[in-house]
Design goal:
The radius of gyration is 29 Å and the shape is elongated. A hairpin with a 6-residue loop joins strand 1 and strand 2. Helix 18 runs parallel beside helix 20 and helix 20 packs across helix 22. With 360 residues, it is mostly helical. The chain contains 22 helices and two strands. The protein has two domains: 158 residues; 144 residues, Serine Threonine Protein Phosphatase 5, Tetratricopeptide repeat.
């Protein structure tokens, strides 16, 4: 080795450390020459830090391996940069610095791309996060592999021993991006599972998919148990969907009205549905007031009609009874357009119906 060209020697040492940095241990203890070669930035930039990925606790400041890790970090080893960025974000609360650090490396290790998207979500850069996620999924080849890597990232976060409020805030911000984004968190272990099911997370979780694919909330759906957890936590979208489901599949009731009423301040679909259910329950005047307030909250009648048609479409995805279908035309007050609505009621609700014909 003493007679080799320096570049050749560095290449040999780099190959030795390609599987694991622990393979360099013998060189570090052999002589000053071998120690200098094994500690060279060229070698440390490429050395495998897989043991650190298996146990992120090794990067802690009091870890025996921390001095070596810092040398790899200074050599800009991508794995070291990724793990240090996680430590910055969850241990020191320096999310912006962590994101800047991640942006200095490419898509290796793949964990870095997921972590970059996660930090972008936490910092409110949703469009950038979507772009990063698209590139991340394409680079790893499949959603299954993407979720597996994401789960490892969340395990790394836990191994950094962050405080619970910070973890809860991360989970809450991820839930705003869509409830399916919580899958990697759930798969990462019981610690994150308990955070995902925290009431503050489920109350704010983005479950738009249930709003537009309402059959997910049907009894017997594989998503029903998660949906009910969101409902119990007061998620307004869950309140709307369940209120509409009960009104359609079981008939207008006080329970359906209460749920729609709770959801209506935050969900415009719920406000329209509440008005219709009130009318179909016999509370015509109250229902018309709600429907008029629905129109008043929108910039145009076209937007109102679009939402109304969406609600009526949503009713068709529930398991409807085989009886009690009624067609009628309602007037939404003076100056408002006529709209033909399909009132879907079960037989026991028929006696309570008070329908007021529209003005011609």
């Amino acid at each position: 080795m003493d007679t080799l060209d320096i570049n050749t020697a560095l290449d040999i040492v780099s190959r030795v450390g390609a599987i694991s940095f622990t393979d360099l241990g013998g060189m570090l203890l052999t002589s000053k020459l071998y120690h200098s070669l094994a500690s060279h930035p060229t070698v440390l930039n490429q050395v495998s830090l897989e043991p650190f990925l298996s146990n992120a606790e090794l990067v802690h400041e009091r870890s025996f391996y921390r001095p070596f890790f810092v040398k790899c970090l200074r050599a800009h080893n991508p794995t070291a940069v990724y793990l240090e960025s996680i430590r910055f974000a969850v241990k020191l609360g320096r999310a912006e610095d962590a994101l800047r650090l991640l942006c200095t490396i490419g898509n290796y290790p793949p964990h870095a791309s997921f972590a970059r998207a996660l930090l972008q979500v936490c910092l409110g850069s949703y469009l950038e996060a979507l772009h990063t996620v698209d590139g991340y999924v394409n680079s790893v080849g499949s959603f299954h592999q993407a979720e597996a890597i994401g789960s490892r990232v969340f395990r790394h976060i836990l191994q950094m021993r962050p405080v619970k409020p910070l973890l809860l805030d991360i989970v809450r911000r991820v839930s705003h991006h869509g409830f399916r984004e919580l899958g990697s968190l759930i798969a990462s272990g019981p610690e994150f599972l308990s955070l995902v099911y925290d009431s503050t997370v489920l109350a704010e979780a983005n479950i738009d998919e249930f709003v537009f694919v309402t059959c997910h909330a049907n009894i017997g759906s594989i998503y029903r148990s998660f949906f009910l957890r969101c409902l119990e936590c007061g998620n307004p979208d869950a309140q709307f969907v369940e209120g509409l489901r009960i009104a359609v599949a079981e008939g207008p009731s006080q329970q359906s009205i209460d749920l729609l009423m709770q959801a209506s301040p935050a969900n415009i679909y719920a406000r329209f549905a509440l008005g219709i259910v009130l009318v179909c329950s016999g509370s015509y005047d109250h229902g018309m007031q709600v429907v008029e307030s629905f129109f008043n909250r929108l910039p145009s009648t076209e937007a109102a009609v679009s939402i109304a048609e969406m609600v009526m479409h949503q009713t068709t995805t529930f398991r409807l009874p085989r009886c009690g279908w009624f067609d009628n035309t309602f007037a939404f007050g003076d100056g408002l357009p006529l709209s033909t609505l399909l009132c879907l009621l079960v037989r026991h609700a028929i006696p309570a119906i008070v329908l007021k014909p529209a003005k011609s």
